[in-house]
């Protein structure tokens, strides 16, 4: 901690260039290899590979945007969960804890099925009981329910990530902020969360990659994502090996790129730039 | 020495429990405007707890504290008091994700609502005062302990507090850095800042303090001018403590 900062910077700069090439390229190389492999398959054997890609293309898009939208919502809802879990208020902490424990105890697949099949049935029953027309004719939108289901589930996991991040910041930071006259929210927003965010970036990126993969579960609730489109293609063509190899490669490209992006973010959010 | 009765801090019969630990057992203390008080006492005697009660980082169970006419009761009052009371911690507690300059301007901007330029000017003036204007763009972890503590003092002063609390500001420092921090505190004391300082730096107490207080076991055992307390203590507990510290 008490080394000469100038000296450290100097050596950083020297190593920086070589380090960057080493760290970044070997992993991007894997991305490139997988992409090349896909291109190779498509160009050398357009039938069936190009046909598969064209067929599942819209599914890739659906997978991406349901994941990204869910994750954006997870970041917000999870923050509330994390603040609730670390709150001094017993009631708030209790509510947040029950939410986290209950949601984490039920498989995502079951939760998605509940949102898509059970939830609309409940709404209809309530409509009947209270005689509300709009409720009786309620029909669940698969995409909305899929996003809702993934958000509610992953926000519970994310609450724990946030909680760990907040708890990893020394208590003195909050006290220093409060002693300067900041209220709880100002102290959180300006002092605690910016530091916690750097701590939780790796697990946060991890959650994103996991969510991207788990989004394949929405295929069971009528969302035409990459997995469901793959199943549809196979049902029509009966070539399981080629179909699922292609689908797997497409998922792999997405997750590898996401993981690289997180690493990049991590690097560019250190203290003492 | 300012000794008219115009207490800026009035502490009345404060009690504080931590579970079964009775950390403060009825503290009465008036601090006059411009007075410098040094608090000494054995570990666990309640010095930090008393200091932390003054700006309500710690809640007390019984008694009352009035700071500059504001009783510490409602949430608004607590925030109001905190903007009047600066605090310096043993572990500095600088914000490591912000540059030195941003550390000193952050609260000015969001609490005092100063614009960027004004906050910047105040910060540079104070960094000059504590002797490290050249470190404004550094991050806290690039500084020595003594430099960090001086930034922490500047950060607190930037809010224009009427009172400064110091909780063992030099105990975490290497010996060669203690004096640079004490010098800054000495200057502050000379300028008439009201200060409550928990510290066992006897030299500083002699040079700067109007009053020295010995705490033991959650109580104020004895208080007097530092020279008097250190050379002619009356209470046995004061004698016992001083013989340990001075040896
Ligand atoms: N957050 C806390 N939880 C439980 N007990 C505490 C807490 N803070 C302080 N105490 C207890 O209260 C008593 C007074 O502690 P305090 O920190 O005020 O002492 P101190 O005089 O500052 O000691 P030191 O010289 O070691 O800093 C001690 O017995 C301590 O163990
Ligand atoms: Mg202490």
Helices and strands of chain A, in order, run as HHHHHHHHHH
What composes the largest sheet of chain B?
Answer: 6 strands, mixed
Mean pLDDT across the residues of chain A is: 90
The helicity of chain B comes to: 25-40%
| First and last CA, distance of chain B | 30 Å
Question: Can you list the strand order of the major beta sheet of chain B?
Answer: 6-7-8-3-9-10
Average residue-wise pLDDT of chain B: 94
Beta-strand segment tally of chain B: 10
Main beta-sheet strand count, sense and barrel state of chain A: none
Number of helices of chain B: 9
In one word, what is the shape of chain B? globular
**Strand portion of chain B:** 25-35%
Strand content of chain A: under 5%
How many helices of chain A in DSSP terms? 10
Low-confidence stretches of chain B: none
- Coarse morphology of chain A: flat
Helix content of chain A: over 70%
Got a strand count of chain A? 0
- Sheet/helix structural class of chain A: mainly alpha
Structural class of chain B: alpha/beta
Structure in words:
The complex is a heterodimer of chains A (273) and B (247). With 273 residues, chain A is mainly alpha-helical. Chain A is 84% helix and 0% strand. In chain A, helix 1 packs antiparallel against helix 10. Chain A is flat. The two termini of chain A are 16 Å apart. The N terminus of chain A is likely disordered. Chain B has a six-stranded mixed beta sheet with strand order 6-7-8-3-9-10, sandwiched between helices. Chain B has a four-stranded antiparallel beta sheet with strand order 2-1-4-5, with helices on one face. In chain B, helix 3 crosses helix 4, helix 3 packs parallel to helix 5 and helix 4 packs across helix 5. The interface between A and B is medium-sized, with 23 and 29 residues. The complex binds adenosine-5'-triphosphate and magnesium ion (MG).
Concise summary:
The complex is a heterodimer of chains A (273) and B (247). Chain A is an all-alpha fold.
